[in-house]
Amino acid sequence: MIEQAYDVVVVGGGPAGLAAAVSASDNGALRVLVIERDRELGGILQQCIHNGFGLHRFQQELTGPGYAGRYIRMVGERPNIAVLLDTMVLSVAGDKTILAVNPRDGLLKITAAAVVFAMGCRERTRGAIRIPGSRPAGVFTAGAAQRMVNMEGYLPGKKIVILGSGDIGLIMARRLSLEGCDVKAVLEIMPYSNGLTRNVVQCLEDFGIPLHLSHTVVGVHGKDRVTGITCAKVDDALRPVPGSEFDLECDCLLLSVGLIPENELSGDLGIEMDGLTGGPVVDQLRQTSLPGFFAAGNVVHVHDLVDFVSEEGETAGKYAARHACGLSSSVGRLARIMASDGVRTAVPQVVRLDDVRTAPVRLYMRVARPERRVTLRLLSNSELLLERVLPVAKPGEMVVADIPADKLRAIGDVVTVVLRRQGGEQGE
Amino acid sequence: MNKQEEKRRISCIVCPLSCVGEVSIADGKITGMAGFSCPRGQDYAREEVTAPKRTLTSTVRISGGRLPLLPVVSRQPLPKDKIMACAGCLSTVAVSAPVREGDVIVADILGLGVDVVASRDMTAREEPPGGMMG
After folding, report:
1. Chain B positions in Cβ-Cβ contact with residue A181 (cut-off 8 Å)
2. Is B90 among the domain residues?
3. B36-43 contact pairs (CB < 8 A, 24+)
4. Per-residue model confidence as pLDDT tens for chain B (134 residues)
5. Are B61 and B46 within one domain?
6. Under a CB-based contact definition with an 8 Å cutoff, are residues A114 and A96 in contact?
7. Residue A243: CA atoms inside 13 Å, Cβ hemisphere, count?
């Protein structure tokens, strides 16, 4: 068995992992390794051939492969970053020993001084949302279809129905229309779309594709292949309304019904997890509850912008390198960030107070439901740390706010994040 | 003289901030604009009501490459009503590896004055696959 030792090992070669590796290399780690299970670096960006990436980071609109290519080149320019492709990590032990396997080297035993988890997320499947009906071929997640259409050269079907109006579903509606498919409809169980407005406009309205809000799939028909679906309106409790059913003929059903951070490795280690984000609890250095284990990107919480994924990767890589160099970052008093009153999740969940006196702490939050004209408030020890008026807040778009460095001293053991409707009423 | 003023709500698609602004139009001319937080958004809204444009991203077949498809992007936005025709044109195109990001795949597509370029590098299949580097 091949045995190797590194300062920082990054699990996952997508945008979070690549940024972490570059940053670890730039912050003192002498030997850095990126382990990627796919045939090349870049992660899911390689199948996201649409544009709109990199506006914050590169001040221009790039495609997914264009954005990935920039980071792949940055990794290539740093000779102290090694890359293992086609390599699956089997286990990570608490002493930072990693077992991985690939067809070229067989089993590999890799030791690290610090580990960055950057495994991204996976899509919820038909089983996860329990759609009734038969089990024919032709039901795919939207991301799987995206890889087929954009990288492998296959179409998942010709007559398409999409369940879920998340960004991937919307983008696939446009993509399949451009490829000549007949996209019949997009169904959304919520009374609002979970996708970015730009995607509702550019991917549905441009192509005249109907979006049925408050609708879901209640039946899948066909024996060998999908021949159609039955959909129905749902009530306020998201239950199908009897009598509202109608059929759509199709040979393909795409599911875009949510993403789940991929934390099998982190979960096995007993790292503290956040039940709402689905990722590990991290501090502002992106260190998990286990010293020396860091996490970044969609493995922590599902992002809407890759630019923020890169930023998080940079942070995790930097502090992983410092940990590996013996400049430990696991000391200091901890304050908990508690999301409530209309704020669903906040990352980081923990602020470490001895490492941050000079730097503001950036919070990434998701709201529970669409709101107009609300005030975001951060409170600790009944002192107002931050107040921001949000003209619009949507569950699909992250709210970003910085706790100023000079306010950090006033923080107690708990920071509460709340939304207030204007007029003092709770945003609920 | 009653000037007929029309207001159109425009959801800006330039960046993910997704500003929703309002454009006032009278006698076919833009008379006012509100709600866009940057000049790029204002430019977009102006264009959206006069001559809407979209960036086209798609794929073309590539032979001898490590993958069977090459992603491409129009270097500038194209007229919205020509997008399907341009996509149809790209479905007939095939190139050979290797290709570098930015290489012109279709010059001046449909005579619209816009080049369609590769949006990633695609090495040839013979080139050694990336194993252990560095």
Report:
1. none
2. yes
3. B36/B12, B38/B14, B40/B14, B40/B15, B41/B12, B41/B14, B41/B15
4. 455 678 888 888 776 567 788 999 888 788 889 888 888 889 989 988 888 999 999 999 999 999 999 999 999 999 999 999 999 999 999 999 999 999 999 999 999 999 999 999 999 986 555 545 43
5. no
6. yes
7. 1
Residues B77 and B109 in one domain: yes
Spatial contact of A53 and A40, defined as CB atoms under 8 Å apart = no
Instruction: Please say if the pLDDT value at position A218 is more than 90.
Output: yes
CB of B34 less than 8 A from some CB of A: no
Domain housing B107: 57-118
User: How many CB pairs below 8 Å do chains A and B form together?
Assistant: 104
Same-domain status, B67 and B15: no
pLDDT digits (tens, 9 = 90+) for A250-297: 999 999 999 999 999 998 999 999 999 999 999 999 999 999 999 999
Number of structural domains found in chain B: 2
Residue B113 resides in a domain: yes
- Residues of chain A positioned with their CB less than 8 A from the CB of B69: 150-153
Q: Are residues B41 and B65 in the same domain?
A: no
* Chain A residues closer than 8 Å to B15 by CB: 52, 55
Cβ atoms < 10 Å from Cβ of A28: 15
Tell me which DSSP letter residue B88 carries.
Answer: H
pLDDT digits (tens, 9 = 90+) for A119-144: 999 999 998 888 988 899 999 999 99
- Tell me whether residues A82 and B20 touch, CB distance under 8 A: no
Where residue B87 sits, what CATH number does that domain have?
A: 3.10.530.10
Confidence check: pLDDT of A169 > 90: yes
